[in-house]
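Query structure, 140 tokens:
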């Protein structure tokens, strides 16, 4: 399977970023929690795209390829594309805007969404690997 080693490394990175997001949330570091939550989802998205033979050089490119390779063909609910988009917007606010406006409760939801996103990407990767073991090509 194309990009398997890199994909595994990206999923490990996604899981690490997710753990960091949770710890930062507990410590009240909301801006950094959102940033880590976004990068957890972003790396998970990159991981599955690599297995499909896709690489994107920008954040927008990852979102676009996620949409065209997984959402449009019906392999991934559009909710996950929205999660990635919301996380990106929140991360940009936290990183670039002088005053961070999201509440603790809103950041908690975003971290939970990132957790769901990473879990769904892991499920899809597992499904793809099982298909490959059976001799089937990924269905995208």
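Result returned for the query:
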């Amino acid at each position: 399977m194309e990009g398997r080693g890199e994909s595994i490394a990206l999923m490990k990175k996604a899981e690490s970023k997710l753990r960091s997001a949770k710890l930062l949330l507990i410590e009240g570091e909301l801006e950094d929690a959102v940033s880590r939550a976004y990068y957890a989802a972003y790396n998970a998205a990159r991981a599955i795209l690599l297995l499909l033979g896709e690489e994107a050089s920008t954040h927008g490119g990852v979102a676009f390829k996620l949409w065209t390779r997984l959402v449009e063909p019906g392999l991934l609910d559009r909710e996950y594309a929205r999660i990635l988009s919301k996380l990106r917007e929140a991360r940009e606010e936290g990183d670039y805007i002088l005053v961070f406006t999201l509440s603790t409760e809103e950041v908690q939801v975003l971290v939970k969404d990132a957790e769901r996103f990473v879990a769904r990407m892991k499920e899809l990767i597992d499904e793809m690997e099982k298909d490959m073991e059976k001799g089937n090509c990924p269905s995208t």
